[in-house]
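FAQ: What does the model actually see?

It sees only this:
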Amino acid sequence: MRIGIACYPTYGGSGALATELGIELAARGHEIHFITYAQPFRLTSFHEGLYFHEVEVPHYPLFEYPPYSLALAVKMHEVARQQDLQIMHAHYAIPHAEAAWVAKQMLAREKRDLKVVTTLHGTDITLVGQDPSFWSITRFSVEQSDGVTAVSEYLRRETHRAFECDRLDIRVVPNFVDPKIYHPDRDDCHLRALAPAGEKIVMHISNFRKVKRVGDVVKVFAGLRREVPARLVLIGDGPERAVATEVAESLGVQDDVVFLGKLESVAELVACADVFLLPSEQESFGLVALEAMASGVPVIGTGGSGLAEVVEHGVSGFLHPVGAVEEMAESAVRLLKDPVQWKAFGLAARAAAVDRFSADLIVPQYERFYESVLGGGDR
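And it is asked to produce this:
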């Protein structure tokens, strides 16, 4: 198949999943064309059958806000015509599904049929899409897609509820991980550099948006550090980084908090972690949690959303209510002080990642979904 993929190229789960999916599809013999304003952050090397097309946005004095979605639609139309694309896969509803629909209408006038598949990742529905400024266009874009997937059952339910579209057929296709890349082997990790005195390593990876509650990450760490010598390793960056710094200083743990910033590859670092923290307001899935689990790292986070479909409470990690930092710290201490239980949780986490969410299991689901959309059959 010849497939276009539109995604945000920046740090975050939707861009990571879209890029990894493209790489996996290209390895399976499909022709993949990424269409976005910058090279995706995980697309760091050449892959046969995989191409990148940059969207250039004109900056005219008349445009106070450059119309990226229109420039994206034009580039989608151009690439689809030149490469005879069969499917445009839009990751994140706005603006990608919207732009894909426009490109589809432009191509229809030329007697070309481009199918649009939209994958919903989370905040495109739970935050951005529910803003009154975007509600109607988000709903329209999703409903006009030829096929729609969501990364969790939680997100599918939330989409139906928020957009009053119970009849919309949404297929749940979860995020995936490559167990050959994310694995528990610590031989090649940077353990000595991160914990020179043999401290336990607590890790968090995100785009540091408010929904990730990075202040709570530091609070949980401060609580567990009273009981266990540890260091907090923060990977990523974003608007809430200053909050993390302020909380660390106020709690007196700043010397044991390490900011590594944005990194293209994190697999070798995740393997170093003893516990992974994800105390988000909500997670539609939690791809970074899955990557930690594949690395044999127990996860401590919040229940009540998609993360509960990934982490099994009391087996591969612990889930607590939003803001329950003391309970999360207690769970972390419990694991870090009991090597036998920590090992059991790590093995269970790894097994769940491999048996339920490996690329070899999930990518074929996308291939079958594409085929059904092209064939017009049941999805």
